[in-house]
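Give me structure tokens for this 363-residue protein.
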Amino acid sequence: MGRYQHRTERTDLQVQAYFDQTQRFGPRGSGGGGFVLHTYDFEIQQSIDAGYHQRIVWGGGERVNSYAITNQLALLFEPERRNLTLGNAFIQDTVAIGHAANLTAGVKVENDPYWGWTPLPDIRATWSFSDRMTGWVAASKAIRSPTPFDDDVLEKIGANIGLTGNRNFRPEQVKALETGARLEASKALSFSLTAFYNDYDDLRTIEFASTSSFFPLYWGNLMRGDTYGIEGWANWQVADWWRLSPGFTILREQLRFKAGSAGLLGTTEAGDDPSSHANVTSSMDLSHHIVFDATLRYVGALPSPGLAHYYELNGRFGWRATRALEVSVNGLNLLHSRHYEFSPTQGGEGIYRSVMGEARWSF
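Here you go.
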């Protein structure tokens, strides 16, 4: 990765480019399968202080994903290799309204390799009730762009094609609304509470080949729905050396098929999400050289396929040996030797407890 930055009194320019190679192959004897992915990315962003309490941010980028897939006997992609280009351009303007409020409006235009150009607008307003309390409202639109799994996949049942991708698969989209407030109750305690509502459309479904034929099934866009809920977090500086940061989310989902859908598998699989989750992080500076962090998390039960709720704990013990060297031990999922994050009936061996040593040297 390479990055160039240039700052003046009224502008801030950043240009960045990176290359990444990722590859993955299935175990021998499991039927093969794997992929190699090369990613080339370029982006530019500039922020401008335009005066009159106004700040403009503009930019754009281009990403090329060049991949090759090793097909399995029952799961194939046609074609096996592609060069997919994802481009974007955006502009955002923030205007101060008096001394207590700001209005931010912007739009990002994304050029998806499968679907083409899509505008993604965003608008939000913030205002200060006092020096300690701030509120906001926001509205935005986002999409999940089609992928090779939506367009190019072929799944076989013996010698027959059981499911095929859809070259006319549309982006899944969401329109999101939120409002919230942040309060600094004291120098040691602050918290935030947000309510949200999301309206989804063109969600992925499985459809029959035709009114008279079952196979091959194909991906459709005949589901919609909405989700709503609240989330909150807090920071409590218990002492100079100790900080607690709790948080929670409560989620409700309502999904339904649109007219003409086959309704295969129902809506529960698409909405198999926990209705609540929470966490609390404890951060301790035990000395100038020793830190200890721990995060306890709770994840609610999954409805269908069902999975019971669970608790897990992550921890980190770090030692700053010198200004240049830091050594740490990190533990993940410490409460159980193994836990599942989706139903065991869907396959997989679960998530195992793990411990990792790390050393960082800055020079």
